[in-house]
Structures are given as structure tokens and as C-alpha cells.
Amino acid sequence: MAKKKTKLKAKKKTATKKVDALLAAVRGAEHRYVGHVRLDVGSAGAARVKRMIYPPGFHWAKDMKPVTGTELCMHAHVGFLARGEIHIEYADGCIVEHKAPQIIAIDPGHDGWVVGKEPAVMIEFDFAGDTINRIGMPDAHRH
Q1: What's the pLDDT at 79?
Q2: Which residues in the chain belong to E strands, given as ranges?
Q3: Domain 30-130 has what CATH class?
Q4: Which of 16, 105, 128, 130 is most deeply packed, by most CB within 10 A?
């Protein structure tokens, strides 16, 4: 009895690159970079929803101070730290560490930087120049 020759079909392996949804482009958002921070901004009623990606090595005093012209960040940050870790220091010496996953409320008047080798990803809610009043945050860090 003769043996049948069979051809084995080689399966092609197609590399499917998984997209990290937390870092992917945000549909319907305005995209820009400010001081090495990737910023995606969209409207939600009277508020804005922002996804900010702070790269490893980011330090507000080095990356944003030249952009804003202020000694410290005078913006209130309210939202959710979805990835990474950030170190916040206030003018009075108070230090706050945030590590994902964590809800955040950062008062105006701070310096801050990314801790470690992964980006920090924050989802933030604000009202442009009226965030402090509309959300009920203090205008500066207090004890």
C-alpha cells in the first residue's frame, strides 16, 4: 500500500498588537501636548473631562514651570489616577503620595513628579478657570 504524501500547511502567525485602551487616542477629544504631558480634552455638560499622560521622569518644576511662568502649579486637580504613581509637594512642605488606582484631589500651589518608570495616567474633571469655585476646592493648600 502506497503512503499518501500530505502537505502540512504552515499556519501563519499574525502578530496582533494589543492596544492599551488607557493610552489609546480618545475619540472626540482635542489632543495636544503641554510641557511633555499628553492631554486629551472633551466636553461633558459645563465641565471638561481630561485624560493626561505624564511620562516617566516628568517633573512639574522642570517641564511645566517654563510654560506657566508660575513657581508652583496653581491648578486644582480632581479625578482618578488610573495608572502610575505621583509625588506632590506643597509650599508648606506637606508631601502627598498618590498611587493608582486612587481618587485624587490636589490643591493649587504644588510641585509634583512621576515616581518610577511607568507613565502616570490621570482622568480629571474641571471647569477651565472656574474649577476651584465650581468643585469647592480651596484656593491653596491648607492644614
Answers
A1: 97
A2: 30-34, 37-44, 47-54, 77-83, 85-90, 95-99, 102-106, 110-115, 120-126
A3: mainly beta
A4: 105
